[in-house]
Design brief:
The chain is an alpha+beta fold. The chain has 5 helices and 22 strands. The strands form 5 sheets. The protein has a 10-stranded mixed beta sheet with strand order 5-4-1-3-2-21-15-18-19-20, with helices on one face. The termini are far apart.
Length: 403
């Protein structure tokens, strides 16, 4: 009897276990077995960020056609008023403007890919205030002629291989003897020299020039192209930092002005013409396109005549001390500082107060080094209140020599 009862109890217990494991209506199981089978949250791994691969001169993300491992190219371009308009400047990634002799200014365009340079010029002689600014980047340096001081810098830094002197580099330069300036007049022969990417490439190949160079940093400390742009907050600007018009005085007759185009987000460039007593759009003769820049960078320092070179008024720009500057972007402006140190040290922009690295937004940049004596005439304003200044014509104080 006891055996029968035990067998019956065992059967009931077994039935109870089966009932305990029966599926619930929600599709899960009850009891201990159901708890053990609950799915754990799936952890999604963080995506591996794309490597930061920025173009050296603009900070934009490198595209498939970026000339990786190619040495950048610097081209010296004339800017006396009688030789305007120039060609090829709208294609420059960075455009420098610095005062040379007689209060005139000159340009130096920087290009990432020399093979893509269009007709550019008129090409003029090299000056050390430009060369020293880009020396750390070891560019191909294209010019026609050079000052005696610049010749000494070429020797000092053993730069002959990358010094593409148009007077001696066979086939590098061509002349357009029929060109006419903005007023429809012919120009002197020294204002007729041009080159282009095809000619530079042919010369580099024929002369065996080393055009390879790997850069481990960008020209400026650019804002990461994966991040939004940083609008200048107006730090240490005493007045409203609205900079829809920015005006730079290099001398009485050489002035550069930028008007901000809010639709395109760029600063359009114009230059002062003494004979007109007003500003005129700075256009590229190749495409009739007005020069436009995302960034406008103005750096002040002492610029004076080299002792012993008063006859030609060769100008020395002091870079070792650094100085105060301004950065304009998006219709706003901010006060900054800049540093360079020795010739072999790169230009650095830093915040005005803490001197931390200053971030420049991606894009094309206009950079000018201006005599500290002209700082009080530097101005920015809102276009809604700006008035074009019509002044009496000022004669150009100097006519360039042919070197």
């Amino acid at each position: 009897m006891k055996r029968v009862w035990s067998m019956t109890l065992a059967a009931l217990l077994a039935a109870g276990m089966l009932v305990g494991c029966a599926p619930k209506t929600d599709g899960t199981t009850s009891g201990t077995q159901g708890a053990d089978s609950t799915q754990q949250p799936v952890v999604t791994p963080e995506p591996t960020p794309e490597p930061y691969e920025a173009e050296v001169l603009t900070g934009y993300e490198k595209g498939a056609d970026y000339p990786e491992g190619e040495r950048i190219t610097a081209v010296m371009v004339n800017n006396i008023q009688t030789c305007r308009p120039q060609r090829g400047l709208s294609q420059a990634d960075i455009l420098f403007e610095i005062k040379v002799e007689g209060g005139i200014t000159r340009f130096m365009g920087l290009y990432a890919d020399y093979s893509e340079i269009p007709d550019v010029g008129p090409i003029r002689s090299a000056r050390d205030q430009f060369f020293r600014m880009v020396l750390p980047w070891q560019p191909l340096y294209v010019h026609v002629g050079e000052s005696v001081v610049q010749s000494e810098y070429i020797k000092r830094y053993d730069y002959d291989e990358w010094n593409l002197e148009g007077k001696y580099a066979s086939g590098l330069i061509f002349r357009d003897s029929n060109r006419r300036n903005w007023a429809g007049n012919t120009v002197a022969s020294e204002h007729t020299a041009y080159t282009n990417g095809e000619r530079i490439a042919e010369y580099v190949q024929s002369a065996g020039v080393d055009d390879r160079r790997e850069y481990n940093s960008t020209f400026f400390n650019f804002v990461d192209y994966r991040e939004p742009a940083q609008i200048p907050a107006g730090a240490f600007v005493d007045t409203d930092n609205t900079a829809e018009r920015v005006t730079v005085y290099h001398s009485d007759s050489y002035r550069t002005q930028f008007d901000y185009d809010a639709d395109l987000g760029v600063y359009n460039m114009a230059q002062y013409y003494s004979s007109l007593g007003s500003y005129k759009d700075t256009v590229d003769e190749n495409n009739n396109q007005q020069l436009a820049f995302d960034n406008v960078i103005v750096l002040f320092t002492d610029i004076h005549t080299y002792p012993g070179h008063e006859a030609k008024d060769l100008q020395y720009a002091e870079y070792s001390w650094g100085g105060v500057g301004y950065y304009a972007y998006g219709g706003k402006i901010e006060k900054i500082r800049w540093q360079k140190g020795t010739d072999l040290e790169s230009l650095r922009l830093v915040t005005f107060d803490t001197e931390e690295p200053f971030a420049v937004n991606c894009g094309k940049s206009y950079v000018t080094v201006v005599d500290i004596d002209e700082a009080e005439r530097f101005a920015w304003e809102s276009l809604t209140t700006a008035q074009d200044v019509q002044e009496a014509p000022v004669e150009e104080s100097f006519e360039e020599s042919a070197d």
